[in-house]
Amino acid sequence: MHCNRIIAEARSWLGTPYKHRAAVKGAGCDCLGLVMGVYAALVGPVPEDPPPYSRDWAEAAGEETLLAAARRHLVELPVAEAGPGDVLIFRILTGRICKHAGILSRPGHMIHAMEGHGVVEIALSPWWRRKVAAAFAFPGA
Predict the structure, then answer these.
(1) Which domain holds residue 105?
(2) Is the dihedral of CA 27, 32, 38, 44 positive or negative?
(3) How confident is the model over 11-48, as pLDDT tens digits?
(4) pTM for the full predicted model
């Protein structure tokens, strides 16, 4: 799968409203729903349904639910090697669990879903770059 297909699919989600725990292009999704939607469109059926998750992503229990799922279904790669079409996982608060994901769209930019904004393409500012915890490629990419 070529990275241009991944980026085109991710961009086709732009403008989708934010909806916690959803993954429906044009109707609503969260950051995980965006990655799952792109996966389903390009790789095939999503291999597992995510367990129910709250906005804190199991923060209280300290469980790396998002990171563990990414490691089961995507191909981990060194963060420095991530490029357009790859998935970034973010640790928003230092010392806490990972709980955000985005797809690199071009050098220094990503597509992600955020509460209050929906699916948008943004610059990967220094603030975001400091929060990157892991990088993954879609299987077959």
Answers:
(1) 3-137
(2) negative
(3) 999 999 999 999 999 999 999 999 999 999 999 999 88
(4) 0.94
